[in-house]
Amino acid sequence: MNTPWGRLFGYRNGRMPGQARVSDLLMRVPIFEELSARELQAIERILHRREYVPEEYIFRQGEPGMGMYIMQKGTVAILSEPDNQELFQMKDGDFFGEVALLDQGPRSATALARTNCVVFGFFHPDLLSLIDRNPRLGLKIILRISRHVGERLRRANERVLALTQKLESVKQVTAREG
């Protein structure tokens, strides 16, 4: 980020004074952890930095997914609408919304800043442009996202199975008592 704007606003080597480098943040994200320093720099160049204030929506459930978000600082709640049930809290180094890089379908949850936050957006059109310029890097990212989504689906299936078994147990107890 050694641009005139970066120099004007205090950026130096991909960071503001007193902040960690963005590439250090990216290395902690499983999707990017096996990339080379050069590949991380290519990703860093297409990220969009954004700050959010408490209670500001990053995206809402049902909106079209445009990309993923990487938390540099702050806390974001992932909520299920319409009752605003909190599913997860995302903190420094976490990421969310990665399915939107594969599928721009409707968001399955809402993301709401709970504190002042600094996040980096990695958006679908930027990924497509990266794939045009560097297909090998694009493929690496797509494969890593796919693995991550697959792992998450397996964990979700295990939870559904456990809940189904628990429900069956409750039904059996209720039937014996009734």
What attributes does this structure have?
22% strand, Jelly Rolls, 4-stranded antiparallel beta sheet, single chain, alpha+beta, 178 residues, 5 helices
Structural commentary:
The protein has 178 residues and is an alpha+beta fold. It has a single domain (4-177), classed as Sandwich (Jelly Rolls), CATH 2.60.120. 42% of the residues lie in helices and 22% in strands. The chain has five helices and eight strands. α4 (124-133) crosses α5. The longest helix is centred in the C-terminal third of the chain and has 43 residues, at 135-177.
Describe the structure concisely.
With 178 residues, the protein is of the alpha+beta class. The protein has helices spanning 4-8, 22-27, 37-46, 124-133, 135-177; strands at 48-52, 57-59, 67-73, 76-80, 85-90, 95-96, 110-113, 117-123.
| CATH hierarchy class name | Mainly Beta
Rg over CA atoms: 19 Å
Shape: globular
Q: What can be said about the biggest beta sheet?
A: 4 strands, antiparallel
User: What's the mean pLDDT score?
Assistant: 86
* Tally of separate domains: 1
What helical percentage do the residues reach?
40-55%
The percentage of residues in β strands lies in: 15-25%
For the secondary structure, the number of strands is: 8
CATH topology heading: Jelly Rolls
Distance between the termini: 69 Å
| Named CATH architecture | Sandwich
Number of helices: 5
Low-confidence stretches: 1-19
Oligomer: single chain
Strand order of the largest sheet: 1-8-3-6
* Main structural class: alpha+beta
Order of helices and strands: HHHEEEEEEEEHH
Looking at this structure, what is the CATH superfamily? Jelly Rolls
